[in-house]
Amino acid sequence: QVQLVESGGGLVQAGGSLRLSCLATGHTTFSRSSMAWFRQVPGHERVFVAAIKGNGEGQYYTDSVKGRFTISRDNGKNTVYLQMMSLKPEDTAVYFCAARDPDFKGAYYLRHTWQYWGQGTQVTVSS
Questions:
Q1: What does the alpha-carbon distance between residue 17 and residue 96 come to, in Å, rounded to a whole number?
Q2: Which of 82, 45, 40 is nearest to 65 (CA)?
Q3: Which of 51, 88, 89 is nearest to 70 (CA)?
């Protein structure tokens, strides 16, 4: 059974940085599977932030975080990261890690194309 555990959230001032981590356990095909980060503000839908291919050679971002966030992965540690820099108050949200099996396809930015989800980690950016 695949389990995803996020960590690294917290409170940071605008302009600051945070690095989120997502450890995947029970995911025997991790190195061949795409991974993603989504975020959600209370009362709003969960939206796509970034995704990375299994081999790490393709990264995709929503426009609002391009140039500020970097997604990466360490397949030896079954972990995916989200380095967030130049944080803004509008980045405040619960950040969720998502995973899917290699054969499970679909557009990265669509929530229903992801099979597994973590519990989320809160990121709060103060102005």
A1: 17
A2: 82
A3: 51
pLDDT for residue 105 is more than 90:
no
For the segment 2-50, what is each residue's pLDDT rounded down to a tens digit?
A: 999 999 999 999 999 999 999 999 888 898 999 999 999 999 999 999 9
Listed residue (84, 68, 2, 1) closest to 35, CA to CA: 2
How far is it, in rounded angstroms, from Cα 111 to Cα 60? 14
Alpha-carbon dihedral of residues 18, 30, 35, 1, nearest 10 degrees?
A: -100
16 token code pair? 């600051």
- 113: phi then psi, degrees, rounded to nearest 5: -90, 5
Measured torsion, CA atoms of residues 98, 31, 52, 93, in degrees rounded to the nearest 10: 30
